[in-house]
Amino acid sequence: MALIDISPPLSEAIAVWPGDVPLARQVALSLEEGHTIALSSVSTTVHVGAHVDAPNHYVVGGQDVASRSLHYYYGPCQVIQVDLPRGARILPEHVQEPILAPRVLFRTGSFPDPTQWNNDFNSLSSELVDHVHAAGGILIGIDTPSVDLFDDKVLEAHHALARHDMANLEGVVLGHVEPGLYTLIALPLALVGADASPVRAVLAPPVV
């Protein structure tokens, strides 16, 4: 089975939201220095790279990421390419094809380099979330750091997802992925109390 990796590599070069905790890896033991094993630790935001948000990231009293059902993050998925100006929200009219799967990933191309931060990435609109939900959607993903715009303090897309009890997937890399139907595998870690989790997101051929 051919897997398509849609996760950016995690290194100290990865860009994180301005003001958030950058990735740093500390080496405790090294084979090159004569130790019998290699041992290291990592510190970073739980919103690093490809990641899923938990409801407690944006809703008081919401579930933590360890409590979320894994069914959101595994199963039939559709990749849809949209074309719109940088810094704009995706509206239902930007989607030129029917929603055919319960998990939808939007390829915008508006955050092209995960190591170089840019503020003018695209995001979801609450109308789009409503549209995907009405078509049976349970998860929406996007190739940008957030489902909301950089300067949005209201978080309209996040709250629309909460209203419908939908999940999100942010920070994926889709430039090498053709639009179409796949199987998504993007399981979060069971980080108790955490508001997000990094994932190793991959696409597989659709299950028939």
Task: Compile the SSE list and pairings.
Elements lengths: L3 E2 L18 E6 L9 E5 L7 E3 L20 E8 L7 E2 L12 E5 L15 E2 L1 H9 L4 E4 L13 H8 L3 E4 L9 E6 L10 E3 L3 E3 L4
Parallel strand pairs: 5-7, 6-8, 7-9, 9-10
Antiparallel strand pairs: 1-13, 2-3, 4-12, 5-11, 11-13
What report would you give on this structure?
The structure is a single chain. The protein has 208 residues and is mostly beta strands. It has helices spanning 126-134, 156-163; strands at residues 4-5, 24-29, 39-43, 51-53, 74-81, 89-90, 103-107, 123-124, 139-142, 167-170, 180-185, 196-198, 202-204. Helix 2 (156-163) links the parallel strand 9 (139-142) and strand 10 (167-170). The protein is globular, with a radius of gyration of 17 Å. The model has no long low-confidence stretch (mean pLDDT 97).
Give keywords.
mainly beta, Glucose Oxidase, domain 1, two-stranded antiparallel ribbon
Element order: H for helix, E for strand = EEEEEEEEHEHEEEE
* Average of pLDDT: 97
**Percent helix among the residues?**
under 10%
Give the CATH H-level superfamily: Putative cyclase
How many structural domains does the protein architecture include? 1
Q: Which value, in Å, is the CA radius of gyration?
A: 17 Å
User: In the CATH hierarchy, what is the class?
Assistant: Alpha Beta
SS summary, helix count: 2
Biggest beta-sheet profile: 7 strands, mixed
